Amino acid sequence: MGKGGGCVPSKKRLAAAAAAADGEPDAAPIPVEDQALEAEREAAPGATRLRIFIVFYSMYGHVESLAKRMKKGVDGVDGVEGVLYRVPETLSSEVLEKMKAPPKDEAVPVIGAAELVEADAVLFGFPTRYGCMAAQMKAFFDATGQLWREQRLAGKPAGFFVSTGTQGGGQETTAWTAITQLAHHGMLFVPIGYTFGAGMFKLDEVRGGSPYGAGVFAGDGSREATDVELALAEHQGKYMAAVVKRLALA
Known about the structure:
The chain is of the alpha/beta class. The chain has helices spanning 11-23, 62-75, 93-98, 135-142, 145-150, 173-176, 179-185, 227-249, and strands at residues 50-56, 80-86, 121-129, 132-133, 157-164, 188-189, 215-217.
């Protein structure tokens, strides 16, 4: 970005980030309260729990590891619950076996497109395919035509988290190109910006994720999500939960 780009934090944020880097654990997030989200406000008596669907596709488990950690962040906000779902697989079992894909976790149910209307917000996770979402997730979005026609998802907050093979493989582009899906549904894109604090600025280790959302580098498939990548995913879950809670209390 140029000197006037939005990627340059304010002096106040830089100071906070530097302080966190010097005297606090790596990747310490800027408190959600600083974003005026009031995450700890109590829900009105008798209010139902808000539900954030964490809908993902994961072939080798990298995106799934972020999804499960993201649920922890969502569940950490009072009155909000994270619900894990995976989208339908489009490849045959024979092809998956040849690709050496591990078995799916049967504890995570497969979601149908019509079920999205039950969510108060949705976090979509997927690996990249040439800078765009994987075909399995695209097929799921393609199945939401009736919801689009009736604008049943309009106004719902949504976010993204991704997996890429390399550092130039699409940590930002994969999320950016997916925003068109939300726009046509009238959904509200909620990026995390630089609210993760010092962890967004450290350059001493390889880290997935961007202002668009959490991310992981899969490499050749053998690399696992690092503690920082998982912490960013947890932060995104908490951040989205705080946003959804504030909207519900408005």
